[in-house]
Amino acid sequence: MSELRVEELSAATIVAVNNLSLRPGQEQFLAPVSYGIAATVVNPQTSWQRVVLDGDEVVGFVSASFDADTPEEHFRSVLWRINVDADDQRRGVGSFAVQALIEEARARGVDHVNVIYEAGEDGPEAFFRRVGFQPVGETEYSEVIAQIRVDG
Question: CATH number for the 4-149 domain, one of 3.40.1080.10, 2.40.30.10, 3.10.290.10, 3.40.630.30?
Answer without folding.
Answer: 3.40.630.30
